[in-house]
Amino acid sequence: MNLENWQKIEEAVVIAVEISDKQKRELWLSEFCKGDEKLKSEIESLLVFEKESANFLENSVDPYVAKILPETENNFSGKQFGHYKILSEIGTGGMGAVFLAQRDDGEFEQRVAIKIIRQAIAESELINQFKRERQILASLNHPNIAKLLDGGVSADGLPFLAMEFVEGETITKLAEKENLNLEDRLKLFIKVCSAISYAHRNLIVHRDLKPSNILVTLEGEPKLLDFGLAKLLDENLLNDAMQTQTAFRAFTPAYASPEQLKNQPITTASDIYSLGGVFYELLTGSRPFNFEGKTLDEIIKTVSDFDPPMPSAVSNSKFRISNSENQNNRNLPIANRKLLAGDLDNIALTALRKEPERRYQTVEAFAGDIEKYLKGLPVSARPNTFQYRASKYVKRHKVGVLAASLIFLFLIGGIFATLWQAQRAEEQRIKAEKRFNDVRKLATSNLFEIHPKIENLPGATEARELLLKRALEYLDSLFAETIGDTELQSELAAAYEKVGDVQGRINQPSLGNTDAALTSYRKAQVLRENLAVADSGNIEKQSDLANNYQQIGFLLWWSSDTKGAIEFYEKSLAIWEKLVAENPNSYQLREKLAKAQMLYGDIPAWDNETEKALLLYRSASEIFQTLSTEQPADLLIKSDLARSHSRLADAYKGGGDLENAVREAALSVEIYEPLITAEPENLKTRRGLWISYFRQCEIYLIKKDRANAAKSCRKLTPIAEMLVKADPKELIAQRDLAVSFYHTGEIFVLESNFISALAEYHKSLELVAKIAETASDKTEFERNMALNYIAIGKVERYRNHLDAALENEKKALELIEKFLNKDPENPAPRINQAAAYREIGEIFILRQNKSEAQKNFKSALEILHKLNQENTLNSSDKKQISELEAKLSK
Question: Cβ-count burial of 292 within 10 angstroms (0-12 exposed, 13-18 middle, 19+ buried)?
């Protein structure tokens, strides 16, 4: 049975089932087969099983094909597939079968589900489809998707997949068997949505979602199964007629979207429709449509022309659902109507709309409405009328609304008393409104309302850039009108700073354009300086100016303009010190001063001016400690205190005081870990903990403390991956992940596992190269690339792959020289440059080319001597001088 015959059999079965008259069916079948008695016999043998199921079309022909295949092909018990021995059969289909198997290689015990293609149809096309399923499963790693564990070809030439064995019930059967209340059903379904959403984000459409493909484990976790029909979204769906035709009758029509039934192109909207069908059955115990006894054409007509009844209107005496707040309703079927009417009706029917564009646009939107329902919030599937929103609000805040109503009554009298004053101020109000209306509209609508809603949407970059372009045009047109108007100047400055944040603020989601951000901040600087000069005694205006200077300094330093960064940091610090001196008891001002000291301390710490860095960091840490004692419930201050200890650890490390460095890093981790427990969703705190582990990792690597280094370094990647997942477009999160890969590579080098080390270095290099492509200022990211090339070259030297080692070190030098052309006095890339020259020298020693080795060692030594004279080498780098001198003396 090859693929072509199989397609003909499927087509014939579906058409023949629709011909109720046996004589007419026999005539049609004879004409279709055109004398091919073998083909006719196979079709007739399938039609025998028609009587066994009233819902033949809904269940597809796969289960019946298994019955007519040779029994010998089902007899796999005890056979070996890779590392696994077959125990028993789980289920069969037309393409193959699934078996329970046990790992049999003595390594460890493990039960798996083995999926095997039948020998009778194992033609190249189906084997390719099978391989495609394996590729899809291998790319998916989600707690609610059954995992692919292994795959290959048996000794008999049968392709197989070894998958996670899921023991449990289908989602609908479990809900009925356990009498799950409404809230538990919805929470279970949200987890299913999470799995489908993950698949869609990985450009995969499942195409066969139904309860039997969603099992719930004994622990209560849903698992999504069977990606045999799944489709990669980046493939050409329109030109994939063969696969669509093959898979057409393999799905279940009860859950198939109209476009699937009509053989039209399939997108994520098709999965949303199928999810809607599962959701409907979970709520009602019934499918959206009853297809019993209907032909294929009738099924298509029903789905295309009619809407399913509202879930609350479905009466099923066998199905009872309870509200988590009233378990006594469990035995009252009529309670379903009250529970499901309204929001849940609309959510289900929105997912089941016939037109793909009118359904939920994403699975996240579908799940989001269910979560809103559980929280008592308005859902998008309901008309967003004032009455609807008000009713939702009142239900959530009954006491508050009553209190507000009483207050409102008292205020009425005051309002009438002040009406005559409003009349007198009308002229001034109109004039002020004319001046400020445009900028307020821009600030509240474009920048502060619209942009936050689109900044995390996939593919929204162009929209964000256009929004900012229009915002800047409007702000610039108002700039000339600010002369003499301090209130408008203040609003305009805040708007420019907001634009700068969106364009390229470091350590928060942005477009990564630091040059544009600097331009916007400098426009705000002019306004802030005017305001501060005009009212030198105003603490708020002085603070705004200090904040502006501080952000410009940070952006300049990030852009490798160290001199400019120092200038603005010192301006900012001078303002904070003056304000604290005048207001020594101000909690907020002391906090701002400490943060400014900590930021400024980063520059001398980076330049290995250890004492200056320690002075600034200690002062900041002491202030944070005092503030934390004064207000122990302030979690932000605790986070700042943890960051100050982390920075002190880095400074001590640079000065060679590794014991103090270890102590400070431990203090930082000790503060951060409880903060994560208190605020698990706080991404800033998680990144702070990542930095603390990073400090520990680097310190233990310098100490050659393999055990502690591995413990700290291997904590980096999971946190960084979570931060990237939370905001995939955030460049700093991606860079942190690249750094995590790099340091994992360092651990593998310590363990002499060079293959694994190279894999981690290459992952780091590929990621940071990708970041550099999109960043407006590539220099710092290119320096990170250089570090990876140096590390890769060193490992290749250890492996005696000298050509590869030399090639990587030369690539590193090229990138470092680009960096130094922009910032020639920066010590960090110069240290990297010396490291690359030294590595090249080591390579030429192994090549027994002493003159080239000597030349490169001298280049490295010359750079280090100059840096030492500038007092910008840490203790670890200083050791290299004596080591290189010893090498040259040989």
Answer: exposed
